[in-house]
Specification:
Oligomer: single chain
Number of strands: 7
Strand content: 5-15%
CATH topology: Rossmann fold
CATH architecture: 3-Layer(aba) Sandwich
Distance between the termini: 51 Å
Bound molecules: NADP nicotinamide-adenine-dinucleotide phosphate, D-gluconic acid
Shape: globular
CATH class: Alpha Beta
Helix content: 25-40%
Number of domains: 1
CATH superfamily: NAD(P)-binding Rossmann-like Domain
Largest sheet: 7 strands, parallel
Strand order of the largest sheet: 3-2-1-4-5-6-7
Number of helices: 7
């Protein structure tokens, strides 16, 4: 029987990686409004401390941790601290991510590996660290932040596309391997969202005109605008809540329609 309380997250412990600002901050804020206790981590201690203050300003008592999610020892230490200080994690969002926009033949193998490390290896490392606790609790929700680049390619983003395509398949594999433990692992594939990560693609040009990529994206998006981090809040709460208990291994694209659209015909 449908109950709107199924969309609530009261008492749940959520960890959102990379959430002192941007998409992670918006998702964690929505989880808090739905009743969850919030833990988040970032690399930069100053940004992390500012994140704690920004949550506080919204009335949210968030627990901030400085942790490099590519480092298995640091991740294990953070998960133990969260278990002691807040409780066993019910909801994990693998959100921390980086991009390097470099043509493939100019890109060093080291840069390629760094992107794969943060965008693909880290979700493996953090998921691996929380799944045993979820199995003990008898339930768990993992949300991997994928991308348009889980489906599409474009110039300069070979490492990012390889990582986000891999993350889509890691999502399906976690679902396959741990679905029988009542763990749901789904992905969210944001469209083009206005955050620091995409700021270079929206820079105003020296002649005052909009960046050509900015114009390209609004033309390619049926909604005719960039997404905002807030556009991801409802979908994330849904995938974190009991309302989605039979949704597993799914990638929910939140893209204003980009993936459905062949693009404008030339005038
Ligand atoms: P953002 O503004 O650049 O924020 C990225 C966050 O990840 C920051 O909090 C950063 O922390 C953290 N981070 C990076 N490397 C880390 C590491 N090794 N360990 C811990 N934290 C780390 O990015 P965003 O635009 O909000 O994107 C968030 C996620 O959505 C990413 O996975 C991104 O690929 C994905 N995404 C973004 C878009 C978009 O259009 N913006 C679209 C689709 C998918 P520090 O500041 O401390 O480094
Ligand atoms: C890029 C962008 C993208 C977006 C996003 C799209 O350079 O094309 O940064 O990759 O950030 O992931 O969904």
């Amino acid at each position: 029987m449908f109950d709107s309380k199924d969309f609530r997250l009261d008492g749940k412990v959520a960890l959102v990686t990379g959430a002192s600002y941007g998409i992670g901050f918006a998702i964690a804020t929505a989880f808090a409004k739905a009743g969850a206790k919030i833990c988040f981590c970032d690399l930069n201690p100053e940004k992390n401390a500012k994140g704690v203050e920004d949550y506080k300003a919204l009335g949210i008592d968030a627990h901030g941790y400085v942790c490099n999610v590519t480092d298995e020892a640091q991740v294990k230490e953070m998960i133990s601290k969260i278990e002691e200080e807040v409780g066993t994690i019910d909801i994990l969002v693998n959100n921390a991510g980086i991009i390097k926009r470099i043509p493939m033949t100019d890109m060093s193998a080291e840069d390629f590996r760094m992107v794969i490390d943060v965008d693909l290896n880290a979700p493996f490392i953090v998921s691996k660290a929380v799944i045993p606790g979820m199995i003990k609790k008898g339930h768990g929700k993992i949300i991997n932040i994928c991308s348009m680049m889980s489906e599409l390619g474009r110039e300069t983003v070979s490492a990012y596309a390889a990582a986000k395509g891999g993350l889509k398949m890691l999502t399906k594999n976690i679902c396959s391997e741990y679905g029988s433990y009542n763990i749901q692992c789904n992905g969210i594939g944001p469209g083009y969202i206005a955050t620091p990560q995409t700021a270079p693609l929206r820079e105003i040009q020296p002649d005052g005109s909009r960046h050509p990529f900015d114009q390209f994206i609004t033309a390619k998006t049926p909604a005719e605008r960039w997404g905002t981090p807030e556009d991801l809040q409802g979908p994330a709460v849904f995938l974190a809540s009991d309302a989605s208990n039979f949704v597993n291994g799914h990638i929910l694209y939140v893209d204003g329609g980009i993936l459905a659209y062949i693009g404008k015909q030339p005038q």
